[in-house]
Amino acid sequence: TKLDAEELIINNFETLPEINNLNNKYNVFQKDPSSVEMILLTDAFAPEGKLCLQLNFNRQEGGWCGFYTILTGVVLDKYSQLNFLVRGATGEEKFLIELSYPEEMKKSPIEINPADFMDTNISKWTKVTIPFGKLRLGKNELAGVQSLVIKFEEKNSSTIFLDNLYLSTDGKPAKVKINTRVVNNFDTKKNIQSLLPVPEDFSEIKLR
After folding, report:
1. What 3-state class would DSSP assign to 131?
2. What does the DSSP 8-state code read for residue 56?
3. Within 13 Å, how many C-alpha atoms sit on residue 167's CB side?
4. Where are the beta strands (DSSP E) in 43-155?
5. Which residues fall within 8 angstroms of residue 71, CB to CB, at 6 or more apart?
6. Is the pLDDT of residue 1 over 70?
7. Looking at residue 42, what is its pLDDT?
8. CB within 10 Å: which end of the chain, N or C, has fewer?
């Protein structure tokens, strides 16, 4: 894989199923009575490329639910910002982002509210850029981060769509070619649903 040093794609959802562009795992997590469903959507809906991710969530007062992608091998402090595209079914969906450390580091995750960096209504595809500098996140804070998590905290049942999650130093779209054997390029007119088992507890997920 050849990458530009100033930009790095984390997920464009066009690699192998449940494998991100870093060759690490991504999936959803949930605990009853909350739940979440992950579906890959084809190019009829994706804003960039051929696929995007749909997350149907049902957040109740008990339990939890969300999405995670593993960042093993990434040195976050080489980059100045996190970027992604998001869209909501109603436009009023709320979620939080966490940058989490491995358990052995015994550090609390970095919590980010993307609402501080985007329009209040996301009924249309919206690009979100989160500058680490504005959050006062430097080398000490970013060192050792091993996963990026999207959490649904407010009681609600709805859907969000994600695409082109990447790191950059200048906000330009990342350009990267992934050298992988194509098992299924998902170039169909139907939605593709993840069939992998969903872990109930994010703390039980084995990091690569």
Report:
1. strand
2. E
3. 19
4. 52-59, 64-70, 81-88, 96-100, 110-112, 126-131, 147-151
5. 10, 22, 24, 145, 146, 147, 148
6. no
7. 80
8. N
Helix (H) or strand (E) holding 156: strand 156-168
Q: What is the pLDDT of residues 133-175, one digit of tens each?
A: 989 888 889 999 999 999 999 999 999 999 999 999 964 544 4
Answer whether residue 208 shows pLDDT above 80: no
Output the CA angle 107-109-115, nearest 5 degrees: 160
**pTM reported for the whole predicted model:** 0.78
Three-state DSSP at 199 gives coil
Q: Which tens digit of pLDDT belongs to each residue from 10-63?
A: 999 998 889 999 999 999 999 999 999 999 988 667 787 789 999 999 999 989
Query: Whole-angstrom Cα distance, residue 61 to residue 117?
Result: 26
Quote the tokens at residue 173: 């779209």
